[in-house]
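Dear colleagues,

As part of the handover before I leave the project, I'm documenting each prediction I ran so the next person doesn't have to rerun anything. This entry is a single chain, and its sequence is reproduced below.
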Amino acid sequence: MNDIDSRLQDTGQAFLTAAWARLQEERVVPPPAFHPYLEVGRDYFGDSVMPLAEYRALEDAIAASHPRFDAGRPLLEREFPGGLIFSFLETFIARLTRAQKEFSPDGPEADQSLRDLIQAVRADTCEVACCRVVSHMTTADGRPVEFTNVRVEPVISEAADHDRELQRIFSTVIPGAASAYGRDRPHGFAPPESVIIARDSGAKPFDLAKPLSQRIERFMLLVRLLKLGTSESMAELQGETHTVRDFKPTVLRFRGAGPGFGSPTQLAAREIILATDDVGRVDGLERLLSAAEKPRAGMAFTSFGMALQKFLLSFHAYGWSEQIVDLATAFEAALSGKEKDDVTLRLKIRASTLLSTDLDPVDQIFKDVGVIYGLRSALVHGGAMTEKNLLKEVRKISTVPDGLPDGKAVAYAVERLRDLVRRSLLARICLAADDSPLWPLDSDTGVDVAMADDLSRKAWREAWRETLTGIDAIASADRPRA
């Protein structure tokens, strides 16, 4: 151990002794075994320990141990010891509480916490992870699947052990993950569930979380395009993967609060099942989407970008009516073009022309789009509809089985629109990804003429399916079987 490490060891040990005594006076410690994680600002004030001479000594020792704490550095580049000191103290308290030990400044819990502090102080970079729990997703064999930049780990457990298994997965990635909840865990139970994990390293941990979360969202977009499902994002845990850290575990809850017991999609739940052979399909679709999007300098937004965003928002909706509006907006942005007249008719023709298959013939798509857009118009144009008439319209949709309960019938109508949007987005991506695209994402010229010509219509329909065949994803072009 060198002189710097020895100084950190001595001052850290002295600080634990003094801080424990002060927090004990304030009846903060020992915490209950059921909740061993304390947080400064919530369970105690920083001013409780910051005036201690031992705190200042440890602060000085940390500041002298690495250039990134140098007072002469620009403010935005300088780091401060305080975050590591409080994390060090709280890590020690949690370890001591979980081990059900009496306080000791030189026991194994203190020794490990001191080693973790020294490692955090000396590190030039740190690793950050995002762990997102999603509903209605699992793997074919119940084992984790490694994709190019994320890991999908299924939550395999009996219902009674669901929460423990979920916390185990979180904690193996981000130690002390449960400290993020503040005694209020993000509730939800929509099996089968999986945790999507993304990691990255860098010098500034707080700058890594957003790109990692966006990486997971991009992965979810690709999977949802390839496989029709009702997989919703429930909650996401973010934080550094080292125990002593500036970026402590933080939990995010998503719009719509995730799929609790009242989720609008649960009545028509459709699972997404992933396997190792899906890795190539996801990578292939990512290449196609990147080729189709092409950078467009100076653009605030694009019609196709709005279509993708609204498609994703439909998985975070509060109810079926909001899902219909989000998906209908995505449908229009993907297929309708720039003309404002006869939008519904244009959607019927374009969707039935591009998307029809033996399983989903032209007449079914044409009629279903008409019914769905009648509902959409009533929702957004100040209309009104009785529950009886709503259900009467919903049951006209070809994919709504006879005899379903009312709530399920509406959920199946949402699922039908979501599948049409999904396949429309796939068609647009495939038709725009080629070096000489048949239908570029930023153009609508000649589309209706091509739809009116028998040869062109057939060529366009075959072209996007051949592109999906090239990434072994032709099954995604059709309506899933019941």
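The chain has a mean pLDDT of 92. The longest strand covers residues 193-202.

All the best with the project,
I.
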